[in-house]
Each structure stands twice: as structure tokens, then as C-alpha cells.
Amino acid sequence: METLKISVIIPTYGREQPLIDSINDVLKQDYPNFEILVVDQTKNHEPTTEKYLQNLADTQKISWYRVDWASLPGARNYAVRRAKGDILLFIDDDVRLESNYLQSHLKNYQKHPEIGAVAGRVFDRMKLANYAQANEDNSPYTIEYLPPEAMDAGIAWYYIDLVHTIKPQQVISARGCNMSFRQDVFTKYNIWFDERFRGSAVREESDFCLRLRKTDYKIWYDPEANLVHLGEETGGCHDISTRSLQYQFTFYHNHFLMALKNLTLEQQFRLYLKLFDCHVLGNPPCNKSGSPIKIATRLVFYLLGFFDALGTQIKGLYTDGQIYSKTDLDNLGIG
Predict the structure, then answer these.
(1) Cβ neighbours of residue 165 under 8 Å, at least 6 residues apart?
(2) Mean pLDDT of 134-153
(3) Number of Cβ atoms within 10 Å of the Cβ of 289
């Protein structure tokens, strides 16, 4: 078991120094048996970044794949088909790692064969800063065990907290910037990332994990497998600001698509209510503006997102929307 190989997969879009820092942290890991796959969707890098990546590729320290499209789930699938590891570990291109990071993921698989995925803790710079602002005494906030609602697929997304939770436990989903899976999740169970999740692809990892939960494998949260997520505004295979109208549209589309694919009607109804209450009306924990104009605007995107996701799901009756994968498979001669 000590010889398990880890494939570290880094999709990237429009990142420069944060990408360099992320790769450097992986190269400094104290576990020797790993490979790094960078799926690069950046059209033109800064000269320093270009030279850095080319040098690492030339010296076989990374496998550097350049593609002419931008899709986070597409980039993940692209790398999985080329990965040689027993464990596939996904990180973002704007993270910082301690030297024992790979070991912290790996030990869970070595000790527990029933674990098929590990969700790591995320020291999310933005969320931690928001909490500090909301508490005048700036006291640290921690959770030992998540509430039962965090395992309820209808409302879990408003209760699962992989930022402040400090105890290992079973969870319903991982966060895309810090998650790993056994290789046979893809090869044996044929579970792949759904490339119909658009933009920043919010909820694509939730969709993947909900399908994984239908197997015999468990998803285990280990706070020791932690990293710092810098939370850059753009990049990471999407090129839209979280404040843009396009982001709002894809945000709702992706939530509704996840629900239509995986949840019962009762679970869907509860998720839609929570999504409306939090993201449209702006009630806690979203705490958005209560301006009638802004609520009306968010409602429009909510409704448009639902009908667009419904259309996506109907199209799924005759096509799975795996555009990038199908092209890649054809290029590999296995389409």
C-alpha cells in the first residue's frame, strides 16, 4: 500500500503566479510516488509562466497538456484518462500546500478500503475573512461534527462546512479544490464529471459525489488533508466574474441540473425553496441585499436557470453533453 501512486490533477485557466506557487508546493511534497498533470486552458501565458511550465515539462516534472477550450469538468476528465495513479487528487490552481499534504490524503485509503473518496479541509481565504468581519471579537469558529442536515441531499449544501469542521467524519460531498478518489471510481464504476456544468462549474463535484454514493464506497472528510484556497476572482477554467450576469445564470443552471439529475421530487422541492430563500430573497446564510430591484433580478435568473437546466436534462435523454470528452476520445482513437 505504501507504493500507491498519486496523480495530482491541476486544471488551470488564466492563472500565472498562483499556478506557479501551487505547482511548487506539490513538488515539495514528502511523499515521493506522484505525478502532476496540468490541463492548461490559458491561451497566452506571461513569459515567466510560459518558461516555468515549459522547463518543468521538458524535465518531466509535470505533464503539461494545452487545450483550446475552457471547461472545469472537461479538464478533469481529460486528465483522468491520462493519469497513471492509483489515487487521483484534484486541486485548484490557486492553493497553498504543506509538505505532508499528499500523505494526509493517502493514509485514509491505506487504512480503510471502504473509502473511495477523501474530502479535505479548505482554509478558504474569502470565507474565513467574511466570518471574521461578522464577529467583532474575531474569535475562531470551529465545528466538531456536522449536523444531520449536512447528509440530507435536499438541503446539505447549506449545512456542510468543510472550512471550519475539525473532526474526521463521513460526508455527502467534497469541495472541488481539495478532493481525491480511487482510480477505479472512474474505471470500474464509470463515473465521470458531467461537462454540462458550465462556467465555474459550481456543483459539478456535488453531482459527482452523489453518484459515487450509489456505489459501496464512502466519502470521508479528513481535516488533516487541508490546504489554503486563495480564492482568485477569475481563472480555474472559467473567465467570468462572480458578480457578472453570466455567472448568476450558470450558478442557478448548475444547481438545478444537479437536483434534476440526482434528487427525488421531495428533495428537489426542499432544495429549490432553500435556494430561493437564500439566494433570491437574500436571507441567511447568504445575507444578500434586500433591495426589491435586486431580488427581482435574482428571481429572473432563478427562473431562467431552472428552465435552462430542464432543457439540459431533456437533451440528456439523447445526448450526455460530454462534448469535450467525445472530442478527446476521438483524438485518442477510443471514441
Answers:
(1) 121, 142, 143, 144, 145, 146, 221, 223
(2) 83
(3) 10
Measure the CA–CA gap between 2 and 7, rounded to whole angstroms: 15
User: Using alpha carbons only, how large is the chain's radius of gyration in Å?
Assistant: 20
Give Cα 249 to chain centroid, integer Å: 19
**What is the rounded CA–CA span in Å between residue 181 and residue 185?**
7
CA distance 107 to 124: 23
Q: How far, in Å, CA of 59 to CA of 85, rounded?
A: 19
Question: Which H or E run contains 115?
Answer: strand 115-124
Cα torsion angle, 173, 213, 220, 320, sign: negative
Give the pLDDT score at 199: 87
- Can you list the alpha helix ranges (DSSP code H) found in the chain? 17-27, 47-58, 72-80, 101-111, 125-134, 184-187, 204-212, 245-262, 265-275, 292-315, 323-332
pLDDT digits (tens, 9 = 90+) for 288-301: 999 999 999 999 99
Query: What integer pLDDT is reported at residue 101 of this predicted model?
Result: 98
Phi/psi at 10 (nearest 5 deg)? -125, 95
